[in-house]
C-alpha cells in the first residue's frame, strides 16, 4: 500500500540544517518509494520563523544572510508536495477540538491534514500526536 509520508516541521528542520539526524533522515528518504510531502502548516511555521528573525535587526549585512537562508527555504518548499489545509482537514479540526485533545492547534492542523490525505506523519513529537485518533505517525529521527 502506498502512503504519502508527510514530514512534520521538526523533520524538515533537521533536513534543512543538515544535522547528523538530518543526514540519516535524508539517506532514509532517498530509499523511500512512497511519495513525500509536507503541509502548508509547516510552510507557515518556517516562514513565520524567518520573518520574525528578519524583524529583529535593521542591519543590512545581517539581513543579507537571513534573506539568503529564507531564499533557500522558499526554494526547498518549491520542490516539495505541500498538502493543503482544506475543508476535510478543517472538519476534522473542529471535531478534534470538541474532543478537547491536549495538543497545540498547529500540530492538530498538521495531524488533520495527514489524516485527510490518508498519510503517515513523520514526527519527533510522538507524545502529542499519539492523542489524535486515526493518525498514523513514525519518528525517523531517533
Amino-to-carboxy terminus distance: 25 Å
Question: Which stretches are low in confidence, meaning pLDDT under 50 for 5 or more residues running?
Answer: none
The whole-number mean of residue pLDDT values reads 93
Please provide the ordered H/E string of secondary-structure elements. EHHEHHEHHEHE
Rough outline: globular
Q: Would you report the number of β strands?
A: 5
How many DSSP helices?
7
> Which class best fits the helix and strand makeup?
alpha/beta
The biggest sheet, with number of strands, parallel, antiparallel or mixed sense and barrel status, is: 5 strands, parallel
Biggest sheet: strand arrangement: 3-2-1-4-5
Name of the CATH class of the domain at 5-41 and 81-138: Alpha Beta
Radius of gyration: 16 Å
What share of residues are in beta strands?
Answer: 5-15%
The portion of residues assigned to helices is 55-70%
Task: Using the coordinates shown, work out and report the CATH topology of the domain at 5-41 and 81-138.
Answer: Rossmann fold
CATH architectural group of the domain at 5-41 and 81-138: 3-Layer(aba) Sandwich
CATH homology group of the domain at 5-41 and 81-138: 5'-nuclease
Amino acid at each position: 500500500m502506498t502512503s504519502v509520508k508527510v514530514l512534520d516541521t521538526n523533520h524538515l528542520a533537521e533536513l534543512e540544517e543538515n544535522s547528523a539526524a538530518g543526514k540519516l533522515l535524508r539517506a532514509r528518504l532517498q530509499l523511500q518509494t512512497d511519495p513525500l510531502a509536507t503541509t502548508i502548516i509547516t510552510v507557515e511555521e518556517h516562514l513565520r520563523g524567518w520573518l520574525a528573525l528578519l524583524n529583529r535587526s535593521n542591519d543590512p549585512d545581517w539581513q543579507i544572510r537571513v534573506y539568503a537562508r529564507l531564499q533557500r527555504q522558499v526554494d526547498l518548499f518549491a520542490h516539495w508536495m505541500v498538502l493543503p489545509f482544506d475543508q476535510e482537514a478543517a472538519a476534522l479540526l473542529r471535531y478534534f477540538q470538541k474532543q478537547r485533545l491536549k495538543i497545540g492547534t498547529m500540530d492538530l492542523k498538521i495531524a488533520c491534514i495527514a489524516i485527510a490525505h490518508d498519510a503517515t506523519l513523520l514526527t519527533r513529537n510522538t507524545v502529542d500526536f499519539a492523542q489524535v485518533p486515526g493518525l498514523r505517525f513514525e519518528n525517523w529521527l531517533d
